[in-house]
Write a structure and sequence with these properties.
about 300 residues; mainly beta; 2 domains; 8-stranded mixed beta sheet; 6-stranded antiparallel beta sheet; 1 helix
Length: about 300
Amino acid sequence: MNEIKLTMRGFYKLDVFKADTKELARSSGWFENIITNVGKDMIATMNYFDDCFCGTGTSTPSASDSAMSSFLGRTTGIVSTNTTTQASSPYYCSKVIVFQFVPGVATGNVSEVGVGKVTSTSPSLVYSLFSRALVLDGGGSPTTITVLSDEYLQVTYEFRIYPPTSDVTGTQTFNSTSYATTLRAENVTNAVSWTVPPGGTNGIAGSGLIARSYSGTLGAITAAPGGSIIANFIPVSNNATYVSGNYYQDIKFTHPINAAGTLQCFDFHTILGSFQFSISPTYTILTTQQLTSVVRISWDRGSH
């Protein structure tokens, strides 16, 4: 099976402001998080970061973390959200969210921060932790940032998805004939094709999954396939019920009947990005035929 993999990274910055004057009192600068295994599952199953958490714990962040080390406060207050794409290499799409803790909620010496999603508040707080990090100084050492009772804390979280820049090659068999295949990212600088989504309960296929078949050749990773469009259609998730720990989604394409042509490429759009793949040699599809293909989209943490 053809499999193409995305990588993800996240970064935090903490700023403390005076409540009365709005003057910046202290700032941490940027530091990187670890996306948890729970967070990797959340990519396929739910909204990623509705909530921001802070704490006073000092344990080293781990992929297996499921909660803050020593919980201090939580907020759902979002000041701003901005989504962009990187126009030059290294390519990535980015979502920057600014959370605000009102005075009194995060009072103390904050040493850890996280984002995720609260699933219950009664009888106690239950949440899924997407990412966690210790507050770091400019040299990369753990530190604290003090929040006084008359100050408020703002946490900026930037989450990035990096499209693959290399081709994935393989083979697939149609009508007992083996075809060479090439799977590639598409339109990586386009903010419509690549944008960090809020997640979804149906996996990365979601409601935005669409596909097209083409008569032309693959485009560069910053473009789409060439030639004329033979058909527009909606593929389906081949594993609609996500299995925890898989960190992938299989996408099944069934080219519609009554759409004849000389088929050379497909492209498809998911809520995690757009991709294209080709078959060689070309396949002349008849109006009485349906051609089925399956590709796999997977995701993992990027290197720190």
